Amino acid sequence: MADKMFENNQVSIIGEIVSDFQFSHEVYGEGFYMMEVSVRRLSDCMDYIPVMVSERLINVEDLNDERKDMTPLFETIVNYIPAPTGDPDANTQILISTIDYNEYVGRIGIGKVDNGKIKVNQEAVVVNHHDPDKLEKVRISKLYEFDGLDKVDVAEANIGSIVAISGIADIHIGDTICSPEAPEAIPFQKISEPTISMNFIVNNSPLAGQEGKFVTSRHIRDRLLRELNTDVSLRVEDTDSPDSFKVSGRGELHLSVLIENMRREGYEFAVSKAEVLYKYDENGKKLEPMELAYIDVPDEFTGAVISKLQQRKGELRNMGSIAGGYTRLEFHIPARGLIGYRGEFMTDTKGNGILNTMFDGYEPYKGEIAYRATGSLIAFESGEAVTYGLFSAQERGTLFIGPGAKVYSGMVIGQCSKAEDIELNVCKKKHLTNTRSSSADEALTLVPPKVLSLEQAIDFIDTDELLEVTPESLRIRKKILDPTLRKRAGFKKN
Question: Per-residue pLDDT tens for 40-64?
Answer without folding.
Answer: 876 677 888 888 888 777 765 555 5
